[in-house]
Specification:
Layout lengths: L3 E6 L8 E7 L2 E5 L4 H12 L2 E2 L2 E7 L5 E6 L3 E2 L3 H9 L3 E2 L7 E3 L9 E3 L8
Length: about 120
């Protein structure tokens, strides 16, 4: 296995440290981080990248036309398109409460899609 090098920007805290990651024969070396979160972020990003997905869903009879939504926790990066396809196929009826589960087990990820805003019924 060849040595692989990657440059990342850490998102573990507001500093945004530039990270240099080297993978050599299964050994991962991280440099550039100023805190332990940078090391943990780089190792996870190399081995199993995940993301939080945010979007919106149309609301029927709502005071707003759409409700903002997000994944309850991070999902595998490779599942983003499947998750978005399922989100785009949905509509919900007002009222919608912040934190309400709108899609359970989205795209078979085991992760729910939740509302991030309250949308009342249209008066």
């Amino acid at each position: 296995m060849e040595m692989e090098k990657k440059n990342l920007i850490c998102i573990g805290c507001p500093l945004g440290c530039p990270l240099a990651v080297t993978v050599d024969g299964g050994q991962v070396t991280v440099s550039g981080n100023t805190c332990p979160r940078g090391d943990a972020y780089a190792r996870k990003e190399i081995s199993n990248p995940t993301r939080i997905v945010t979007s919106s869903i149309p609301v029927e009879n709502g005071a707003l036309a759409r409700v903002s939504v997000k994944t309850e926790r991070d999902i595998p990066k490779g599942k983003i398109f499947e998750v978005m396809k399922e989100i785009r196929s949905r509509r919900v009826a007002a009222p919608v409460e912040t934190g309400q589960v709108l899609i359970e087990n989205c795209a078979g990820t085991g992760v729910n899609i939740i509302a991030t805003k309250t949308v009342n019924r249209r008066l």
